[in-house]
Each structure stands twice: as structure tokens, then as C-alpha cells.
Design a protein that fits this description.
rod-shaped, 90 residues, 90% helix
């Protein structure tokens, strides 16, 4: 009997069905394990991105403060250099 004829035999369909039913719980456990691993990886990556974002925001706040401070110093220096107008003396 050829392999093709054996695979179409009624008994082989029953064996395949039994094998599928036996493997179903294992497949489900594998799906759950893979899903949990993916979720864990995604949560870790999100936490790392949040930390990096917080650090970037803190840096932007510091830079904004420094720029405001510099702007004030520049404004003060420009006022000191500005010529006094005749109207200001009166």
C-alpha cells in the first residue's frame, strides 16, 4: 500500500484527530507562554521609553530655565549699552 493510500485510510484520520486533540492543550500552553513573554517585553520597553521621556522632559525644563536666565542677562546688558536719549535726561 502506498503512503498516499495509507494517509487516506479511515484509521489514519482517527489517529490524526486523536493527535490533534492531544496536542491542543500543549498548543494552548505555548500560546499563553508566548503571549506572556511578548507582554513582558512590551511592558519593559514601555517602561524604558517612559524613563527616557521623563529624562528628556527634565532636560528640556533645565534648558528652558537656562535660556530664560540668559535672555534676562542679555536684556540687562543691552539696556546698559543703549545710549541715553535726550528725553530720559529731562
Amino acid at each position: 500500500m502506498s503512503d498516499a493510500a495509507q494517509s487516506d485510510a479511515p484509521g489514519s484520520r482517527g489517529v490524526r484527530g486523536t493527535a490533534k486533540r492531544a496536542l491542543a492543550p500543549l498548543e494552548r500552553r505555548i500560546e499563553i507562554a508566548v503571549t506572556r513573554a511578548v507582554e513582558t517585553t512590551i511592558r519593559r520597553e514601555i517602561a524604558e521609553l517612559q524613563a527616557a521621556l521623563r529624562a528628556d522632559i527634565a532636560t528640556l525644563v533645565e534648558l528652558t530655565y537656562e535660556l530664560e536666565h540668559l535672555a534676562g542677562r542679555i536684556d540687562t546688558a543691552l539696556r546698559a549699552l543703549a545710549p541715553v536719549s535726550a528725553d530720559d535726561d529731562a
